[in-house]
Fold:
Amino acid sequence: MSIALGAITAICATFLAVGATIPEWFVVVGRWLPALVSLVVLRLVVLPGGLARWWALRPGGWRRLLGGCAVAVVALIAVYALSVLPIVAFGPAEPQPGSALAQVAILLIPTILVFSLSTFGEEVGWRGFLQQTLAEWGFWRASATIAGVWVAFHVPLHGAMAIQGTIDWLIAATSTIGLFPLGLFLSAAVLRFRSVWPAVFAHAVPLSALNLISNVDDLGPGTLWALTAITAVLLTAAAALLVRGRTRPAETDSENGVSAANLPR
Structure:
């Protein structure tokens, strides 16, 4: 995936060189770079099973699809909510008012469906194609590698946006580092349900722990880093729960080719 990293770096560097602010649409479209790179690889190298297998597109039935997506989305939202609790209880953070949370809840499913058109491009590349390519490494080693690459993929974008003043440097740093444990969670969701779709929809959840706090601008660096650390611990724990159980030698799901190594039985 060095091609994807090089491409995003070159594009962001071009925006900085010409003095053009990175548009919001590029953040959405840029997520498709990993998918495009994996498409090129699949065109150049003939792999058994084709696109549906290597992108892990077959959900194994509607029941597995809906159940897996629901578990992944609810678990992620629960992690964010639990992460905020100690910051609100013992720190200066204030929760979002109930009216704001109710509005988010009403629009949650439609928003996830819309955002999934963008997150699909990342998930089939990282947690679909690359996850299967590294399956023999075992869950934690493979997922940590992919999460690290995913973080590196966002460094040029977040860095350029911080330089341009679109986002604060501290928010850029905490958000970028926070992608690592999120990547572990998304990989665990893919392996647990043997399909990329739970990760696609969980990634499309339109909020983070910060969005549950109403006075983010008033929080100091220590509080933001503490929130990032708490969220990281909970996301890693959630990933471990998703893949808990006895480990077995790497197997192949007969439906979509997703490695079943380290999956619960």
User: Anything to note?
Assistant: The two ends are 31 Å apart (CA to CA). The chain is about 70% helix and 0% strand.
